[in-house]
Amino acid sequence: MKKNKVEDLTEESGLLAGEITSSKVEVIASIVLTLGYSLSTLATILALQEEEELAHAKNNEKQDQNLYMKQMFKQLQNVNNRLDTIERKLNRY
Question: Superkingdom of the source (predicted)?
Answer without folding.
Answer: Bacteria
